[in-house]
Amino acid sequence: MKVIIFDDNINVRESIGLLLSTTDNMQLVAAFDSCKNMLADIENINPDIVLMDIDMPLITGIDAVKLLRTKYQALPVLMLTGFEDDDKVFASLCAGANGYILKNANMQSLIQYINEVYHGGAPMTPVIARKVLTQFAKIQPVKQPDENYNLSRREKDVLQLLVKGKSYKMIADELNISYETVHSHIRKIYQKLQVNSVGEAVSKTISKNILRTYLF
User: Fold this and answer.
1) How far apart are CA 183 and CA 120, in angstroms?
2) Whole-number Cα distances in Å, 21 to 3, 28, 29, 129, 196
3) Domain residues for 58?
């Protein structure tokens, strides 16, 4: 798995590079201190996953994700930050980030999160998940869905748990299905809702009132 990182902190870049060098099937192929040439860098390197710092000079991580999504809609992006910030978490996920982790998280958790994002997951720390859901809950949904998204009963079950901030593993356990089945359902949900990330899926579900009722 080829990993690329954009982070202006050299210690973070070196620490993650060292970690990945000792991890099977992962390699830090490039590290940059800004996103000023991000699209060209990604095109030249063709990474499998992007690690993105949220606070950088010239172009913030949030703006970088928005720009990245104009050309690379399916490329997994895991946001890194040293601070828990409701607004930035919300903005990152709505911009198209696939997951979010604090820089002070356990290094093995970072490996787990990279793997989960690479395989279609949407990891967030529990604290951040709760804050994101608080922000999403402030969105006023319309009374009726604007259109029929043709979600199956099981897809609605999975989507409702995703809206509640459940991880893929937690969804699998709660619905008594395999992790791979959850992944398959969420891939179909993304296609039907025409979204590319958990943030977009949750935001659209709530703003369009797709599930009609929500339990936070």
Assistant:
1) 7
2) 11, 7, 10, 29, 29
3) 2-135
Give the C-alpha separation, 204 to 47, whole Å. 28
**Domain closes at, from 135, 152, 172:** 135
Length of the chain: 216
Q: What is the CATH number of the domain that holds 127?
A: 3.40.50.2300
CA distance 181 to 78: 23
Q: 30-34, 50-54, 125-129 — which is least confidently predicted?
A: 125-129
In a domain? residue 92 = yes
Encode pLDDT of 148-170 as tens digits: 788 999 999 999 888 777 777 88
Q: Which two tokens stand for residue 193?
A: 């809702």
Sheet holding 2-6, edge to edge: 27-32, 2-6, 49-53, 77-81, 99-102
Average pLDDT over residues 28-37: 94
Same domain, 87 and 164: no
Indicate if 118 and 66 belong to the same structural domain. Answer: yes
Run of H or E including 78: strand 77-81
SS3 content of the chain, % helix, strand, coil (to 5): 50, 10, 40
pTM for this predicted structure:
0.69
150 and 123 together in one domain: no
Q: Is the pLDDT of residue 79 over 50?
A: yes
Contacts of 5 (CB under 8 A, 6+ apart): 12, 13, 16, 17, 28, 30, 31, 32, 50, 51, 52, 53
